[in-house]
Predict the structure.
Amino acid sequence: MIESPAARPEIFHLPVASSAFGVVLKPLSAWERIANVGAARKLAILVALALIWELYARWLDNPLLVPTFGATVHAFADAIESGELPQKAWTSLKVLLAGYTIGILCAAVLTIVAITTRVGTDLLELLTSMFNPLPAIALLPLALIWFGLGYGSIIFVIIHSVLWAVTLNTHSGFLSVSSTMRMVGRNYGLSGLRYVGSILIPAAFPSILTGLKIGWAFAWRTLIAAELVFGVSSGSGGLGWFIYENKNQLEIPAVFAGLFTVILIGLVVENVVFRTIETRTVRKWGMQH
């Protein structure tokens, strides 16, 4: 005969006031709340760098070498007020965006061909080995012969600087996609562009985004270098030409103001455009923490 288990006694707990538990969540101080904000930390670093710049320039006491931060800000404000600096910046941005966009499109075509065919893979490896080590600015003399004295020459060298960085990172990201993801796409009957767009691009997007960032930086460097060498077309030039002209006139604060503008645009693009894309894609998808 199987005995039934003994009945468990009923247990009752009286409610306890939350104050009896002590401190459950320690409130953060105002300083700790500010320190947890990434933008505030970066702003503090920028302020510290500006202070170091100002102190070093005052200690050096040679405006022809390093003007003070205050003098640079004053020259920057004067150039903004006169409208010269916004016009130069817009001229550079138009050329940059044109070359950057065409470079991304060319990289997309080359990468898709490389990932879908063996001949394309061989072509990509051969072209990157040949042209990736070649500095973009070294092609400017040839570009001037081929495209003449105009923005076409600068756009050509920008495309060269963007193309290989974006292509290599995108192709590397495609190759790192797991076999499981690839088989899922094949099981759904995906092939060609649908397979690339639905499986490879989302899975490899962190690498693609890194390539876009590197390509943007390379494009800026190439643009400013090209404008320093050849910056005037139809009586106007960009930020590189603005820097070059003020250097010839020994307006060193204005030179630093031009460099300051390049830095500001870079900060905006990195912390607004690319950060927004990253937040809405790879972080939202749980691919980064």
Observations:
- The radius of gyration is 28 Å.
